[in-house]
Design goal:
four-stranded antiparallel beta sheet, alpha+beta, 160 residues, disordered C terminus, 15% helix, five-stranded antiparallel beta sheet
Length: 160
Amino acid sequence: MSPLAGLSAASLRPQMEGQQIGNNLYALLAGGGCSHGNPDTPNGIILVDVDHQSFSYVANLSAFEMANPIANPGPSLGDWEPDGSWYSIVVVNGQIYATEPNHQELDRISPTTGAVHRVADISASSSKWVGPSGMVYHGNFSSAILRRFLSFLEVRAFTN
């Protein structure tokens, strides 16, 4: 059995076709980690090897969640997922961006090093749950939306 055969379609969230950078296909592996009953398969960004029907981890998002708590978990405590409930990925300028609505964050992942960097902790902006990362509703997290959001963050950083 190939490593991909053991994964359900719900576990792989590659925006249906995945996100491609050059000749590499990346996917969001969601539903993993101890809090989802999959301790040996953490949430993560994976590099899919279609020819060999296998994958390798680029970044372990479950480990990132555990090591980097958000500012305000309060609004999500009734439905807290320690490993996160990763929702969506897009590629902008060769970097992978992932949203996580339970922890209310937007993170950037380097496809070459696997380094994860928190771009925005939306939980810090409100005492209430803001929604899927505050800007992503009904699955329309697109590179165009992300580019506008990143431009906004750059302008705020420059003016503050």
